[in-house]
């Protein structure tokens, strides 16, 4: 079939062309891969310091296999200045989260929460990942590097705090029966003293033992 | 056995400090295990109760078997799970009618 859109000159579609200009016009945001790791060697965590102010929002996608015979979880920590932010309290990170989940064998939906007692996002927070099975997850982070400062209208004690929030989902095999579960959840990472102003990395940590295999990638949203 | 991590794409052995931190994490994980098992136990029990809640409606007559079954579910949390699969827990048998 003739290519009618190119009229002034012909263009050999089998040739190779180098573009030095900028493409503008139609099209919206996209994802830029900042980090990825694939391995079949056992590791206790996967970390990267590739978060910056270049991107506002981030997407973390992963598949992991927990150690055979050892039920586990995935705990996601923030990093700043080359260190993990592992402390709770006013000067630390307090993670509030909730999730609804169901099991393929049940129509009923259950839920679970964590009310600020952890410095990490636990995925899942409702139950264990079955040792040796595949766990798949993705986490969307809002304004991860700088955080969002709350207003004072409805908050008086303390007035201002910095929040990094987002949503996540997962699917996996759990321990209570040999079938499958899936979930959607939300989280808010609260820094009451507003002293953590520059998150530069993330650590995906096995709650106990190792990931015997993993495939983890971090993307920034290009605006 | 030495532990490893992936940092910015490279597999790196834990430092002594990291080994100590991971030991503390694993200790916390194991200490919290009974609470996690109990939460899962209650979730499964509650699911079974919800499935028969409609029997409490005023226009439904609940048989003695169902009354016993539901009471058994309410009382079952006096047991303590010994593992993540709740293998030592015996749920009451659901009546057939």
Identify the strand order in the major beta sheet of chain B.
1-2
Alpha-carbon distance between the termini of chain B?
A: 56 Å
Major sheet of chain B: size, sense and barrel closure? 2 strands, antiparallel
Give the radius of gyration of chain A. Answer: 21 Å
Number of E strands of chain A: 14
Beta-strand residue fraction of chain B: 5-15%
Q: Residue ranges of chain A: pLDDT <50 for 5 or more in a row? A: none
Helix amount of chain B: 40-55%
Number of helical segments of chain B?
2
**Main sheet overview of chain A:** 9 strands, antiparallel
SS-derived structural category of chain A:
mainly beta
Number of helices, where a helix is a run of at least 4 consecutive DSSP H or I residues of chain A: 0
DSSP strand tally of chain B: 2
Question: Which chains make the largest contact?
Answer: A-B, 35 and 27 residues
The general outline of chain B is: elongated
Distance between the termini of chain A: 37 Å
Using the CA coordinates, give the radius of gyration of chain B.
Answer: 22 Å
Folded structure, characterized:
- The complex is a heterodimer of chains A (223) and B (97).
- By secondary structure, chain A is mainly beta.
- Helices cover 0% and strands 48% of the residues of chain A.
- Chain A has strands spanning 30-39, 45-48, 58-66, 74-80, 83-84, 94-103, 109-118, 121-123, 134-141, 148-149, 162-173, 180-191, 201-206, 211-222.
- In chain A, the strands form 2 sheets. In chain A, strands 1, 3, 6, 7, 9, 10, 11, 12 and 14 form a 9-stranded antiparallel β-sheet that branches. In chain A, strands 2, 4, 5, 8 and 13 form a 5-stranded antiparallel β-sheet that branches.
- Chain A starts with 29 loop residues before the first strand and ends with a strand.
- The model of chain A has no long low-confidence stretch (mean pLDDT 88).
- With 97 residues, chain B is mostly helical.
- Chain B contains 2 helices and 2 strands.
- Chain B has helices spanning 16-51, 64-75, and strands spanning 4-7, 10-13.
- Chain B has a two-stranded antiparallel sheet with strand order 1-2.
- Chain B is elongated, with a radius of gyration of 22 Å.
- The termini of chain B are far apart.
- The model of chain B has no long low-confidence stretch (mean pLDDT 91).
- The interface between A and B is medium-sized, with 35 and 27 residues.
């Amino acid at each position: 079939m003739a290519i009618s859109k190119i009229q002034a000159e012909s263009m050999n579609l089998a040739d190779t062309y180098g573009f030095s200009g900028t493409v503008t016009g139609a099209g919206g945001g996209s994802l830029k891969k900042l980090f990825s790791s694939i391995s079949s060697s056992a590791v206790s965590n996967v970390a990267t310091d590739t978060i910056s102010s270049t991107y506002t929002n981030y997407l973390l996608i992963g598949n992991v296999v927990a150690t055979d015979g050892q039920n586990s979880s995935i705990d996601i920590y923030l990093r700043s200045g080359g260190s993990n932010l592992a402390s709770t309290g006013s000067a630390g990170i307090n993670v509030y989260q909730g999730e609804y989940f169901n099991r393929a064998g049940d129509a009923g939906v259950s839920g679970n929460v964590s009310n600020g007692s952890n410095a990490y996002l636990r995925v899942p927070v409702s139950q264990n990942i079955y040792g040796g099975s595949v766990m798949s997850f993705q986490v969307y982070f809002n304004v991860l590097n700088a955080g969002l400062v709350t207003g004072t209208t409805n908050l008086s004690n303390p007035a201002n705090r910095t929040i990094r929030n987002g949503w996540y989902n997962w699917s996996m095999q759990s321990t209570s029966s040999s079938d499958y579960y899936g979930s959607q959840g939300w989280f808010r990472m609260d820094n009451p003293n507003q002293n953590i102003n520059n998150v530069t990395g993330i650590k995906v940590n096995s709650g106990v033992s190792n990931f015997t295999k993993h495939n983890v990638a971090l993307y920034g949203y290009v605006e | 056995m030495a532990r490893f991590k992936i940092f910015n794409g490279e597999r790196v052995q834990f430092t002594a400090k990291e080994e100590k931190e991971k030991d503390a994490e694993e200790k916390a994980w194991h200490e919290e295990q009974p609470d996690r098992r109990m939460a899962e136990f209650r979730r499964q029990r509650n699911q079974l109760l919800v499935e028969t809640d409609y029997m409490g409606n005023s226009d439904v007559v609940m048989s003695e078997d169902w009354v016993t079954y539901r009471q058994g579910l309410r009382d079952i949390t006096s047991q303590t799970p010994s593992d993540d699969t709740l293998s030592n827990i015996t749920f009451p048998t659901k009546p057939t009618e």
